[in-house]
Amino acid sequence: MNNELVPQIYIIIINWNGKEDTIDCLESVQKIDYPNYKILLVDNGSIDDSVAAIRERFPQALIIENGANLGFAAGNNVGIDHAISQGADYVFLLNNDTIVDPQILWAFIRANEQYPDAGILGSKIYYYKQPQKIWYAGVEWIPSQARFLHLGCGNIDNDKDWREFQFPEYICGCAILVKAEVVKKIGMLEPKYFLMWEEVDWCYRAKRAGYKCLLVPESKVWHKISSSFSGGDKAPHYQYFWWRNRLLWVERNFSFVEALNIYKAIFRDTLRQIRKYFNSQSGSQEKLKSQAALEGVKDYFLRKFGNCPEWVRSPVKQ
Q1: Residue 39 β-bridge partners
Q2: According to DSSP H, which parts of 58-153 are helical?
Q3: Cα–Cα dist 167/141, whole Å
Q4: 155 by DSSP, 3-state: which?
Q5: Fewest C-beta atoms under 10 Å: which of 6, 82, 197, 234?
């Protein structure tokens, strides 16, 4: 098929000292069956030999070196800006710790033809080590906890359930396809977040602009969960970003009256973290998680955004 007859898609992958994961990801991306896509790797100031190794292995891939760790949001913005300037019709942000199905882009394009009002599209995401087990198939907002719950998480995909298109609250940022026209209308990712909640903010802004978020079940990704956070959701910097950025997301997307019940739930949640921190029965790891979460809350009110404090990312034993 003539490349000019199908939309051009830029696949943007952020790398930060993740050579092995990124190479695995790029190898799967190279196998995508779609005639008009480009690979753009954005390196966030890696200090290993990632860039040299990737250049040697994938000489056709365009690499932009930021020279510093700009985070997920600002790092991707560099790639998005380049892609839009080159005439991309879509940008596809893909975590470097993922493997993709070869038909992923065709699944997106066909879905968008069926639902043209969808401006942001996402994949059904599986656990990498358990390839039939679902990690993400949409989300549900839990008001009493002021948090989202991944739908389908832990379920085995039996090819009968989880096969319908969905219009979720947001699309998971580890595999998110966005129309260029949406970016031009609402702007790029908010860099204040640095990491986490930025895609939720993006989706809410798109919905306010009249676009829908569409989960495409035939677009499949396998995620290593999570190379960005050694220790997963138990990692102190995961807790820091999650707590701080949840407050920023509420501030940016709800009026004060709309947000009152959310703030009440966050307040109750914060009190629980304070009790955990001062509870003599809490282990050192539990205390560290609570300390990082509370630091995130504090920094939100102090208007400290961007990267987390060094002690949160590299905690030392007290």
Answers
A1: 11
A2: 71-85, 104-114
A3: 13
A4: coil
A5: 234
- Eight-state DSSP code of residue 48: S
Side-chain-side CA neighbours of 279 within 13 Å: the count stands at: 15
Spatial separation of the C-alpha atoms in residues 265 and 112, rounded to whole Å: 36
- Whether 232 contacts 225, CB under 8 Å: yes
CATH domain 3-223 topology: Spore Coat Polysaccharide Biosynthesis Protein SpsA; Chain A (3.90.550)
For residue 87, the one-letter residue type is G
- Domain-by-domain residue ranges, the chain? 3-223, 232-313
pTM of the model: 0.94
Nearest to 287 by CA among 297, 302, 276: 276
The length of the chain is 318
- pLDDT for res 158: 86
* Residue 237 tokens, joined: 């910097």
User: What pLDDT sits at residue 234?
Assistant: 76
Torsion over CA of 260, 263, 265 and 270, rounded to 10 degrees?
-160
Residue 210: phi and psi, rounded to 5, are 105, 5
Residues of the chain with pLDDT below 70 are: 1-4, 226-232, 315-318
Q: Is the distance from CB of 203 to CB of 173 less than 8 angstroms?
A: no
Q: Cα 168 to the chain's mean position, in Å?
A: 15
Give dist(CA 142, CA 149) in Å, integer. Answer: 7
Rounded CA separation 96/314 (Å): 22
Residue 79 and residue 83: Cα distance in Å, rounded?
A: 6
Task: Report CA-CA distances (Å) from 260 to 181, 203, 250, 297.
Answer: 33, 21, 10, 17
